[in-house]
Amino acid sequence: MQFSVDTFVPVADGVFVAVAEPAGVNIGVVAGPSGCLVVDTGSSPAQGAEIRLRAEELTGVPVVGAVVTHWHYDHLYGVAGFAGLPTWAHETVPASLDRPEARRASAALGVEHGSLAAPSDTFSLARVLDAGGRRVEVVHFGRGHTDGDVAVIVPDADVIFAGDLLESSGPPSFGDDCHLKEWPSAVDGILGLVTEHTVIVPGHGRPMDRLAGFTQRAEISGLYGQVEYLVGHGVKLTEAYEAGEWPFDEATVRAVLPLAYAQLAAEGKVPRPQLPLA
Q: What value does the CA radius of gyration of the chain take, rounded to a whole number of Å?
């Protein structure tokens, strides 16, 4: 597995983004007068340590902490590289390291699972952080891509790190741990703060503007709404793709349809035979 961290580039005054491989994840740095804050930590403890070093070289001030936007490996597994510093995440994140899929991810990366560290500080709804004399707000707007997504807001720069609630490198990542029905509402929390000048840094891909954010929110909502409509009209999973109109490519939709049907079934919504009209 090849691990690397690309060059940090500015997206606003004192706010920088670099891409870390192997997952193409956006890593953020918010620099204040006396310290800097890292947003997401990469895919291994060694990569986290490299990000920490690169952030200090970039800004000329010490890293004062790191925020993890959610529990997936490319955002969380570098936390151990920030040993001795406070690291923040939603309260659901530490326990996620015990999930079987988390262990499978570390094995696939060639990273010893026991070397990983959980964030040192957690919260349920929001925290205000001091990035070396600069205010940063971290908010959980609800479940979406995972159960513990947070957005990292830099008010004085009009920058929002959205984690994987939004992506511009391709369609959103609809994993088995996502919450399709609630996802648009979580994005609404971000969009409610967006102005025509806001830079939205997605979890993967180039920065997004307000229109791109609203468009992707509508697409996620449209996907769930279309499945709900089909289920309500008795369309079975095996027939759903051909029967629907979809905002994403065929491979993405076919992959997410079983999950969408399962989540609707958990609410008691299943396809039922439709009686013919008299």
A: 20
Q: What gap in Å lies between CA 56 and CA 101, rounded to an integer?
A: 33
137 and 187 together in one domain: yes
Question: What is the C-alpha to C-alpha distance for residues 1 and 140, in angstroms, rounded to an integer?
Answer: 32
Q: Give CA separation, 133 vs 10, 54, 60, 170, 229, in Å.
A: 19, 20, 14, 35, 50
pTM of the model: 0.96
Q: Which residues pair with 19 in a beta bridge?
A: 26
Element (H, E) at 218: helix 210-232
Indicate the number of domains in the chain.
Answer: 2
Spatial distance between the Cα atoms of 53 and 202, rounded to a whole number of angstroms: 23
CA nearest to 63, candidates 40, 42, 82, 44: 82
pLDDT band at 277 (very low <50, low <70, confident <90, very high): very low
Q: Output the pLDDT for position 274.
A: 67
Closest CA to 76 of 62, 89, 63, 58: 89
**Short-list 30, 29, 34, 28, CA closest to 62:** 34
Structural domain range at position 240:
216-272
277 domain residue, yes or no: no
* pLDDT for the residue 273: 77
Give SS3 for 25. Answer: strand
Give the distance, in angstroms, between the CA of residue 64 and the centroid of all CA atoms in the same chain. Answer: 22
Total residue length of the chain: 278
E-only strand ranges, the chain? 4-5, 9-12, 15-21, 25-31, 36-39, 63-67, 87-90, 121-123, 126-130, 135-139, 151-154, 159-163, 199-202
For residues 23 and 73, the answer to whether their CB atoms sit within 8 Å is yes
